[in-house]
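> example.struct
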């Protein structure tokens, strides 16, 4: 009887492992670009999707590390994300200097991107946005925490907050130098998202698909948390185990494909 029970338990464990593996393989679909062309194509769609889904408006930006030269990254010239095409993509070094491009053609806050890329070799994509539902959590002592399965990747300790006042007083609150970029990256630490007091948020990921989907659901989670707080009472957040397991198991391929279909073909 004990042997039979052990066999049944082992088979159950194997079934769960296979299910989770198949879910990650079919759903997670973290498609890290292997070539320059793929990286730029993903980057253009990332811009358009973030604009189309209301994460970015006329401001905000996304970058991707060069898969063939990790000491450089790609980002659009300084235009609205909804207008970005492959012709608008510039290449930058790790000091945020544009390669073979006129000066001052890029985004003023490109230093967010090179700061994170310098500090985090594991990061291939950086998104900076000014999402309204997230900004209040950077202004108050209420921590932003994951409370539904699509936000487990945020971690359960509360999203860190970068306050530029800790670096210099009376700035324009924009990250316009490597000093500010390094300071932001330090607060980000090993997290996947950092709030920016009175400004917005920065989300990082291993692929354009992952970072874009995470940026979208960070906004959804903030809206859900704010709505839950209005109802009063204690909020049931994800446990560390729930957050870790949902982050591994919930796919990003399906939402990415849906977002991309909404944008359609880019001429």
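> example.seq
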């Amino acid at each position: 009887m004990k042997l039979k029970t052990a066999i049944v338990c082992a088979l159950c464990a194997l079934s769960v492992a296979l299910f989770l593996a198949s879910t990650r393989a079919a759903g997670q679909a973290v498609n890290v670009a292997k070539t320059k062309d793929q990286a730029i194509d993903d980057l253009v769609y990332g811009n358009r999707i973030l604009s189309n889904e209301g994460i970015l408006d006329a401001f905000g930006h996304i970058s991707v590390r060069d898969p063939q030269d990790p000491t450089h990254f790609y980002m659009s010239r300084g235009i609205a994300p909804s207008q970005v095409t492959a012709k608008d993509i510039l290449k930058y070094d790790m000091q945020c200097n544009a390669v073979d491009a006129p000066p001052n053609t890029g985004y003023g806050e490109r230093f967010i991107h090179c700061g994170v890329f310098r500090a985090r070799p594991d990061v291939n994509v950086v998104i900076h946005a000014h999402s309204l539902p997230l900004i209040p959590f950077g202004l108050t002592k209420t921590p932003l925490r994951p409370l539904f399965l699509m936000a487990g990747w945020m971690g359960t300790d509360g999203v860190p907050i970068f306050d530029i006042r800790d670096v210099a007083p009376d700035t324009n609150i924009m990250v316009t130098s490597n000093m500010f970029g390094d300071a932001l990256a330090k607060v980000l630490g090993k997290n996947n998202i950092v709030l920016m007091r009175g400004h917005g948020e920065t989300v990082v990921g291993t692929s354009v698909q992952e970072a874009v989907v995470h940026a979208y659901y960070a906004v959804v989670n903030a809206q859900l948390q704010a709505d839950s707080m209005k109802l009063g009472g204690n909020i049931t957040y994800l446990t560390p185990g729930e957050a870790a397991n949902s982050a591994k198991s919930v796919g990003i391929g399906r939402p990415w494909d849906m977002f991309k279909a909404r944008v359609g073909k880019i001429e």
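> remarks
The helical segments are 2-28, 36-52, 111-119, 178-188, 208-231, 240-249, 253-263.
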